[in-house]
Design goal:
Helix content: 25-40%
Number of strands: 16
Number of helices: 17
Radius of gyration: 30 Å
Largest sheet: 6 strands, mixed
Structural class: alpha/beta
Distance between the termini: 51 Å
């Protein structure tokens, strides 16, 4: 906000008193509230934050004096000096703990929120739990340990704040945020346009944290025995991270990590019930987090520290900033399902540098023994430039793709980058199909041109 006139933003004269500032602030926050600007939410958010920041400075006597003399730059320098004494807290804590702080939240991770610091709340990028309370009531004070515990255990994942509604009566922040009585807990999604949600459940850590975690954005993939190779081979430039967990729902810390590393890591979770993956990765304790280094061999680098957000972030940052080495010479080593998503990502297509073995199945029940035989030898080709896939023939218009495939079952090997393929000819026996694969991988086969690329 450097260079902007805070008085002009609020529409008040330079000699405006606190009452005029509060009146202008209330009016403008209503004007720019997301509910009143559904057609331009980003613009409304920017204006909302700008007004909140201007008010935050001018309502504080010390900040206003500095602003009147030195402008925005002077205010920023003053805030930086104050923050240096609290380096153990994050940016939110440094701002919010500079004002009133009672003994309920002293030396805790609970953010004490008042209208003077509201701009930080409106800039939020994570879910907030806010406890509205009246310290004069025993009912409010008895939740002290619970709220402190929530803030401590959810640090870096979900922000936990408290508003003293007794002290806040004049500003009416509690009412503005939807808390018309206290004590009360409300959860605010990261999206500023979303309304706060009142919590009416049991007053314990698990119930409240689960309620809040349900509002978190999640980019975590659920990985199981059936879709593991799809997960592992998708977007080969990015490292894959797996959390093996005994929980039945995605842990909040994993949701937070998936948002922080979105676009840099692909994060999945494996539930304890996926016995195949648990055994192949030799998982003996839950939770276990690892970065996959060899998908075919089920190998990875394991995280050995505490399961705290900041520790996990430091571990994963190294892999998020390092592009995964290309595996053009390695196959998937497994007969995997060819899905629509894989086709969209270029598997067996013009961007695929590997060979693509494709078994077009007519009836998996009738072909069970053959499919099992192909699966058995597919893992022998993990170090060769060939991927193995199976698909139900009715899912693709194979006659429009392959000139000489008019009936199924059928087996072909595609060289997508060159738009060519070769069809298996002979009796459908696993050992003969393996001989066919060896022949093609050796480079001895003559291929013909595809009529059309493979579509779902």
């Amino acid at each position: 906000f450097a260079g902007e006139d805070y008085y002009q933003i609020l529409g008040v004269p330079r000699n405006a008193d606190d009452h005029a500032l509060k009146k202008a602030f209330k009016k403008l926050t209503l004007k720019y509230h997301p509910d009143k600007n559904l057609d331009k939410p980003d613009w409304a958010r920017d204006q909302y934050v700008k007004v909140s920041h201007a008010y935050e400075v001018l309502i504080d006597p010390e900040k206003r004096r500095i602003y009147n003399v030195k402008g925005e730059e002077g205010v920023q320098e003053n805030e930086q000096m104050k923050s240096q004494g609290n380096m153990h807290q994050d940016i939110y804590g440094r701002f919010f703990h500079t004002g009133f702080q009672d003994d309920l939240w002293h030396q805790s991770d609970v953010v004490t929120l008042s209208i003077q610091q509201i701009s930080m709340f409106y800039r939020r990028e994570q879910v907030w739990i806010i406890y509205f309370y009246n310290p004069e009531r025993q009912e409010s004070r008895q939740h002290k340990d619970l709220i402190r515990d929530l803030a401590n255990r959810l640090y870096g994942i979900i922000k936990v704040a408290a508003v003293n509604c007794q002290e806040d009566r004049e500003e009416a922040l509690c009412e503005d945020l939807g808390a018309y009585s206290s004590p009360r807990i409300m959860v605010f999604p990261a999206n500023i346009a979303a309304e706060g949600i009142q919590y009416d459940g049991d007053m314990n850590y698990n119930a409240i944290s689960n309620f809040a975690a349900a509002q978190m954005e999640s980019f975590v993939r659920l990985v199981n025995d059936a879709n593991y190779m799809t997960f592992a081979t998708e977007d080969p430039e990015k490292n894959k991270v797996l959390l093996f967990t005994s929980r039945k729902s995605t842990p909040p810390v994993l949701k937070a990590l998936s948002k922080e590393f979105k676009g840099r890591l692909i994060i999945g979770e494996v539930r304890q019930a996926s016995k195949g993956l648990v055994d192949k990765f030799q998982i003996t304790k839950f939770p276990t987090l690892l970065v996959v280094t060899d998908a075919s061999s089920h190998a990875g680098i394991r995280y050995e520290g505490e399961f705290k957000k900041d520790h996990l972030t430091r571990f994963l940052r190294e892999y998020a900033n390092t592009a995964k080495a290309k595996t053009a010479t390695l196959g998937n080593g497994q007969l995997a399902e060819l899905t629509e998503r894989l086709l969209e990502n270029g598997q067996c297509g013009e961007s695929d540098e590997k060979l693509c073995f494709l078994y077009l199945s007519k009836s998996r029940k009738d072909e069970k023994d053959l499919i099992q035989g192909i699966s058995s030898f597919a893992n022998k080709y993990g170090n060769d430039p060939i991927n193995f896939y199976i698909i139900d023939a009715q899912r693709v218009t194979y006659s429009d793709v392959f000139s000489d495939v008019s009936e199924v079952p059928a087996a072909v090997i595609i060289k997508g980058k060159r738009k060519r393929y070769v069809k298996f000819e002979g009796e459908f026996e696993a050992n003969k199909i393996r001989d066919f694969v060896d022949f093609v991988v050796s480079g001895s086969a003559t291929m013909q041109k595809l009529k059309h690329h493979l579509d779902w």
